[in-house]
Write a structure and sequence with these properties.
Chain lengths: 117, 119
């Protein structure tokens, strides 16, 4: 019973590079959420995806950030041309179905800590 | 708009003391869920509890207990006989409900309370 798997655990990028964060949901889960935790802050919702669909991206910055959840493979959060302000912990969560059905809580991964130098 | 406030930024107690972490929420919805998560120094998020808006019964799980009061929009968390291993950041969260196509189920988190339990 593997939990939500995120990799890498730590990622260091120089300003201007691209960052790719991966999230494999729990087995049988088809819904993925990405959250960002800036230093000393709580988690903020970024995007909600189902397989091959972006359902809600209201928390995503308008530029440089994108997310996908293909039919096969993990969900990817991609940050282009990273800046220092992107340094944060990025958490992925999954659920077996729409969490609003309230059947289960979100199960979070261990997060990816992105440091932009 | 939905909002979660954890007014206590940091709390420090000595081992074996009881400690209560406050959580106040705002929502106009009648159906919602409240959560507590623990984030130990290692950084992962550990689910502790989920409570729906129709169930105001207090819950106890070992040394943990939760007091849900709709009248004051609060969902406080008490640790009895605290231990050093309880040292962590604790987050309260509110699910954002919706209806039909607007359902997303995303969580709104408070700022977190850092609990330090000293030996």
């Amino acid at each position: 019973n593997a939990g939500v798997m995120q990799n890498p655990r730590h990622l260091v990028r120089r300003r201007g590079q691209e960052a790719r964060l991966r999230c494999s949901p729990m087995k049988g889960h088809s819904h993925v959420y990405w959250y960002r935790q800036l230093p000393e802050e709580g988690l903020k919702f970024m995007v909600y995806l189902q397989k091959e669909n972006i359902i809600d991206e209201s928390g995503m910055p308008k530029e440089r950030f994108s997310a996908e959840f293909p039919k096969e493979g993990p969900s990817i959060l991609r940050i282009q041309q990273v800046v220092r302000g992107d340094s944060a912990a990025y958490f992925c969560a999954s659920s077996p179905r729409d969490v609003s059905s309230y059947n289960s809580p979100l199960h979070f991964g261990n997060g990816t800590r992105l440091t932009v130098t | 708009a939905q909002k979660v406030t954890q007014a206590q930024t940091e709390i420090s107690v000595v081992e074996k003391e009881d400690v209560t972490l406050d959580c106040v929420y705002e929502t106009r919805d009648t159906t919602y869920y409240l959560f507590w998560y623990k984030q130990p120094p290692s950084g992962e998020l550990v689910f502790l509890i989920r409570r729906n808006s129709f169930d105001e019964q207090n819950e106890i799980s070992g040394r943990y207990s939760w007091n849900f009061q709709k009248s004051t929009s609060s969902f406080n968390f008490t640790i009895t006989a605290s231990q050093v291993v309880d040292s962590a950041v604790y987050f309260c969260a509110l699910s954002e409900p919706g209806g039909g196509s607007s359902n997303t189920g995303k969580l709104i988190f408070g700022q977190g309370t850092t609990l330090q339990v000293k030996p």
